[in-house]
Write a structure and sequence with these properties.
mainly alpha; 0% strand
Length: 144
C-alpha cells in the first residue's frame, strides 16, 4: 500500500463534521507521514525495526541526518505523534475535534512528505546517508 493514501483519506475526513472524523484525520495524517519517513529511510538502507519503538527511531534517525530540513521533519514527527496519541487515546481532550486542527495536521503531512521526497535527490541523498551513518557509528560502541 502507498502510505500517501492515508493522507488522502485524512483530507476527506478533515472535511467531515464529526469529532470522530477530525480525530481520525489526525491519526491517518500522522501514519501517512510516519510510513513515508520509514519508506525513505528503508530506501537509503536504514532498516528500522517494526513495532512501537519504530516511531521514535524514525524521528531520531531523521534528527541526526545532518540535513536541516530532515532535522525539522524528525522533530515534527515527534510532536505529530503526540497529537495522534491524543486523537486516538485521550477522548476527553476535545481540542482535536475541529476541522481546523484536522486540516492543519493534513497540511503538516503534506509538508513532511514533500520534504522527504526532496531528500531522495543527489547529492543531498548521499549527504543524508553519510550523516545518518555517522550517527549510527557513534552509537555502535554503546550497543556492544
Amino acid at each position: 500500500m502507498n502510505p500517501r493514501e492515508f493522507n488522502e483519506l485524512a483530507k476527506a475526513l478533515a472535511e467531515g463534521s464529526k469529532a470522530s472524523e477530525f480525530r481520525s484525520a489526525v491519526s491517518r495524517a500522522y501514519y501517512a507521514a510516519f510510513h513515508v519517513a520509514l519508506e525513505s529511510l528503508d530506501s537509503m538502507g536504514f532498516g528500522v525495526a517494526r513495532g512501537p519503538s519504530a516511531h521514535a527511531e524514525v524521528a531520531r534517525l531523521l534528527m541526526n541526518s545532518s540535513d536541516s530540513e530532515l532535522i525539522r521533519i524528525g522533530g515534527s514527527l515527534i510532536d505529530f505523534r503526540g497529537a495522534r496519541n491524543k486523537a486516538d487515546y485521550q477522548l476527553h481532550d476535545t481540542r482535536l475535534e475541529t476541522a481546523a486542527v484536522a486540516r492543519t495536521n493534513v497540511g503538516t503531512t503534506g509538508w513532511i512528505i514533500r520534504g522527504l521526497e526532496a531528500s531522495t535527490v543527489e547529492p543531498r541523498r548521499s549527504a543524508i546517508i553519510a550523516g545518518i551513518n555517522a550517527y549510527v557509528e557513534k552509537l555502535r560502541p554503546l550497543q556492544e
